[in-house]
Each structure stands twice: as C-alpha cells, then as structure tokens.
C-alpha cells in the first residue's frame, strides 16, 4: 500500500450529469455481467443521489481549475424491507434493478469501484468510511448491506461490516453463480457530539 495520495481530491454526491463517467468506471471495474447498466446508473443518480458517492480529482493547471475526473464511486439505493420482520433485507437480483424504496431503512450498496491506476492507496476505505459517517449522521437508514466476493470479506470487515451468510438469491443466477457471494451488514449509528 502506497501513502502517495492524489492531489486535489474530494468526495461529493453523484448527479445525473456524472452518469457517463460512472458508466466508464463501472466498465473498468467489473466484468459485463456484474456492472451496472447505463439505465440503472441513470435511475440511481436521478432518484437517490445522496446514496451515490463519487471520489474526484480536480484537474488544476497553473492554479486554474480545468475540470474534474471521477476516480472512484459507490452506488446505493434503499432496498425493500424483508418480508420476515425479524430479518434485515439483503440484496437480491430484483433489488439490483431500478429499485429504490424511500420508506426502507436498509441501504443496499450495488457497486464500489476505484479506477485501477488509483487502487491500493486506501481510497476505497476512505470513500466507504466517508459514506458510512454521512449516512449515520444524517440518519438516512439503520443499516448498509452489501454482497461481497469471498476474498473481499476481510476488506469490508476492516470497515465494520459483518458477514451474515451466503447470498442465495444472487448465486441462483448463472452469471453471478460462478463464485461465492457473502451478505454483509454494517449498522449505522449516529455519532454524538458534545456542545
Ligand atoms: C475492491 C476495490 C474497490 C478496493 O479499492 P482500493 O482503493 O484499492 O482499496 P483500499 O486501498 O482502500 O484497500 C486495499 C485492500 O482491499 C483489499 N483488496 C482489494 N482488491 C482485492 C482483491 N482482489 N482480493 C482481495 N482483497 C482485495 C485488500 O485487503 C487490500 O489491502 P492490501 O493492499 O493490504 O492487500 C478495488 O480493488 C476495485 O475497484 N476493484 C474492482 C471492483 C470491485 O471488485 N469492487 C468490489 C465489489 S462491489
């Protein structure tokens, strides 16, 4: 892991105008069967930009800002609650579509990606930590859930996610069924500040 971080870096919610850059980054990060379609990206950025976070670098030349470049993103929606009230909702193939249930207390993360040339600099950790902190303090929901390839489980555990079990819905899809997917959950707890 290198400690050299990109200059002029910032995180902001993604909006519809970012859809093309998000789509390009999905293509770099995921094989075709796992990446979000342009339609799903447009839907998520239009309906719940507060759950879609982008990591950008500013392109600065001689003190002048020339533009910005998306180098990482996370896409989330609120997924429908479980029909069994004793169990939290988890990501299903249906929830990966154009689905956002504003009344739900569970945020499902559909995508986390960092551009290959910026990986292993702690940037996914930074983006996820920022996301968790913002959602916790804004009381957007009670928990975040994600499905993770087994090798990435220790990475998400370091950020406070816990493994709940194998996701059986997603593994029924032949495109996803090639590897084991784990359901993971991170409860959102509001930080208290002293006056
Ligand atoms: C997974 C991903 C987001 C991590 O981004 P990153 O900025 O490099 O992550 P960080 O620098 O914060 O943390 C790096 C850690 O991630 C874990 N990690 C990353 N890729 C991994 C992989 N293929 N297998 C196992 N662990 C991996 C390791 O624990 C690594 O720590 P290490 O360098 O000490 O081994 C990035 O590799 C990526 O975009 N991959 C393609 C898309 C993807 O698979 N997304 C996750 C599923 S939604």
Keywords:
4 helices; LAMI_0H12398g1_1; Acyl_CoA_acyltransferase; aralkylamine N-acetyltransferase activity; alpha+beta; seven-stranded mixed sheet; binds coenzyme A; globular; Aminopeptidase; GNAT_dom; 195 residues; transferase; single chain
Description of the molecule:
With 195 residues, the chain is of the alpha+beta class. It has one domain (9-187): Aminopeptidase, CATH 3.40.630.30. 22% of the residues lie in helices and 30% in strands. The chain is built from four helices and seven strands, in the order βααβββαβαββ. Strands 1-2-3-4-5-7-6 form a seven-stranded mixed beta sheet, with helices on both faces. Helix 3 links the parallel strand 4 and strand 5 (143-149). The longest helix is centred in the middle third of the chain and has 15 residues, at 123-137. The model has no long low-confidence stretch (mean pLDDT 92). Coenzyme A binds next to strand 4, helix 3 and helix 4.
Summarize this, please?
The chain is of the alpha+beta class and 195 residues long.
Query: Which class in CATH terms?
Result: Alpha Beta
Terminal CA distance reads: 38 Å
Radius of gyration: 17 Å
| Main beta-sheet annotation | 7 strands, mixed
Name the ligand types: coenzyme A
At CATH level 2, the architecture is 3-Layer(aba) Sandwich
Pfam families: Acetyltransf_10
Domain N-acetyltransferase: 9-183
Organism: Lachancea mirantina
Protein name: LAMI_0H12398g1_1
